[in-house]
Amino acid sequence: MKSKFIKGLLLSLCVVVTAIAIKACSNPAQNLQTFKVGINSWPGYQIALYAKEAGLFSKRGLDVEFIRFNNQQDNIRATMRGSQDASFTPLSEVMQVDANQENPVIIMVCDISAGSDGIAAAPDIKSVKDLKGKKVSAKLSTVSHLVLLEALKANQLKPKDVEIVDVANERGAAMLKDGKISASVLWEPLMSNAAKAAKGKVIHTTADVDSVVIDSLATRSSVLTNQEDILVKFIEAWFETIQAVETKPKEVFASVAKQLNMPIEVFEEDYKGLKKGDLAMNQRMFAGGRLLEASKQTRELLITDPRHGRKVRDNVDIVNASPITKATKNWQS
């Protein structure tokens, strides 16, 4: 009797264990690999929110968690210090990140500014050349500073030819309206709005040059070494997201706008001034050598104006084409 009871109990336990195992196997969420990515409020990065909502990451076995940042140096520092796995961040911020035992590595280009950043000016300023001897607002060491340096060089001016007022965008726009400065380096939609409020105009945008205002996905060297398969999957999901932007933009923009609690028209307008980080762009950036060239140009621009007070990296290991090459091969197959 006792033997039959024990056999029955063991049989029941086997059934329960088997059921639990089957349930675990049928629930993909339990098998997803966690991947943490820093992000800020830039439209070129925020389209990744669509990828998460549409399941483009999860179908590749990834549980992507986005960590919000206001300051891009805090973002890339968190990646370098191991608090997260990667950062959506501009090339120039990667070039200026604090020294660490590991190197930062850019593995994908998300977009290139092509009109989203520029300079709003007072009515008496007709061109960038008119800024000589004038006060211009730009937050030192940020993308705004780089946009200004790029514009000055394109117009044969030196950094010391202008007095930089080191303030954030919103403060710069207010100072321009009040007539306290002659120009302000801003991004859309604040740039156009500030020019209108000051009764002036936009005198330069990144569409006027082959800009080095390049937004990227960056990681640290140990993640590249130990988790390259995850990086490749992330990039594949990114390519699918860009494909969705090209084939069904309203759906993508509606998804992102809803998650950000903003009108779809606002997000759509903000995204318009960017060159998308699609397959062709990334091939140009990595295989074509443009990203390495842009990193050298960025370094040259930043070291011409030491007012930012940061050390600029010169290591060529900042660019690694391996993940993008593997993702491209998978995507095309």
TrEMBL record:
Alphabetized, the UniProt keywords read: Signal
Offer one Pfam family short name for this entry.
NMT1
Q: Can you give the residue ranges of the Solute-binding protein family 3/N-terminal domain?
A: 34-256
SMART domains, sorted = PBPb
| Record InterPro entries | Solute-binding_3/MltF_N, SsuA/THI5
- Superkingdom, according to UniProt? Bacteria
Q: Which residues form the signal peptide?
A: 1-23
**Entry's localization field:** Periplasm
The record's family statement is: Belongs to the bacterial solute-binding protein SsuA/TauA family.
This one is known as ABC transporter substrate-binding protein
